[in-house]
Amino acid sequence: RKEVEQDPGPFNVPEGATVAFNCTYSNSASQSFFWYRQDCRKEPKLLMSVYSSGNEDGRFTAQLNRASQYISLLIRDSKLSDSATYLCVVFHTSGTYKYIFGTGTRLKVLA
Amino acid sequence: EAEVAQSPRYKITEKSQAVAFWCDPISGHATLYWYRQILGQGPELLVQFQDESVVDDSQLPKDRFSAERLKGVDSTLKIQPAELGDSAMYLCASSSFSGRYNEQFFGPGTRLTVL
Q1: Pairing between strand B5-7 and B105-106?
Q2: Which pLDDT does position B42 carry in this prediction?
Q3: Burial of A86 (0-12, 13-18, 19+ CB in 10 A)
Q4: Which of A45, A91, A96 sits opposite B102 (nearest CB)?
Q5: Can you say how many angstroms the Cα of residue B98 is from the centroid of all Cα atoms in its chain?
Q6: Alpha-carbon distance A22 to A37, whole Å?
Q7: Helix, strand or coil for residue B46?
């Protein structure tokens, strides 16, 4: 079992739709959580850190459920420009500082 | 805005040749990472430096890969000899752990094609 698991998709949604991605992690000692966005053939870029109380940035909302060990990303009013791969990243300090990446979820927003 | 620099952006080489990639992290970031990303997968850690010291190279194929960060600033990743299976994006990232949430910042990557 992978330490961080995501549904690879693709998720094909129409413009204006609401779409949600989930990510599960296996290490209960994980301390920090992030969503990164990666465009095709580009580097990952930080989209949001995920706070324990949940957080929102415009059309994007991230939630953390430590009891069930999953994080989620909700995108409202999808835009064509949201088409990308969304990487779930978990950080923990078991021995060394380590970031563990999921395989990413592909999103395609259709006109 | 400070950025992680990498060069070259693209590299095409023949198998059995040597290649080298360079990374300059964000100024002041003590931790530097080299990742390999194969299409359709997430980045996989190859090596992690804390200042000039290697703290994790458990996934680095040491028979052909080497990495150094001699002065604790910029870093070089080398592959010798390159194999067909090494074709991938090589990403460098840095972080400072100065904040609560420990964000990691990536360079633009080097796309390696081995023929």
Answers
A1: unpaired
A2: 93
A3: buried
A4: A91
A5: 22
A6: 14
A7: strand
Restricting to B residues 4-63, those with a Cβ less than 8 Å away from any Cβ of A are: 31, 33, 40-45, 48, 50, 55-56
Task: Report CB contact under 8 Å: A99, B101.
Answer: no
What pLDDT does residue A25 have? 94
What are A20-67's pLDDT values in tens digits? 999 999 988 888 899 999 999 899 999 999 988 889 999 999 999 999
Q: According to the model, what pLDDT value does residue B100 have?
A: 54
Contact A89, A99 (CB under 8 A): yes
**Is the CB of B99 inside 8 Å of chain A's CB atoms?**
no
**Full pLDDT tens readout for chain B, 115 residues:** 679 999 999 999 999 999 999 999 999 899 999 999 998 899 999 999 999 999 999 999 999 999 999 888 999 999 999 999 999 999 999 988 655 557 889 999 999 999 9
Backbone angles phi, psi at B74, to 5 degrees: -80, 170
Token digits for B46? 């190859």
Q: Do B109 and A42 touch (CB under 8 A)?
A: yes
Which residues on chain A are in Cβ contact (under 8 Å) with B44?
101
Q: Please indicate whether, in this complex, the C-beta atoms of B43 and A34 are within 8 angstroms of each other.
A: no
Task: Please judge whether B48 and A41 are an interchain contact, meaning their C-beta atoms are less than 8 angstroms apart.
Answer: no
Note whether A45 and A68 are within 8 A (CB).
Answer: no
Contacts of B91 (CB under 8 A, 6+ apart): A43, A44, B6, B34, B35, B36, B37, B43, B106, B107, B109
Residue reference for tokens 């040597």: B18
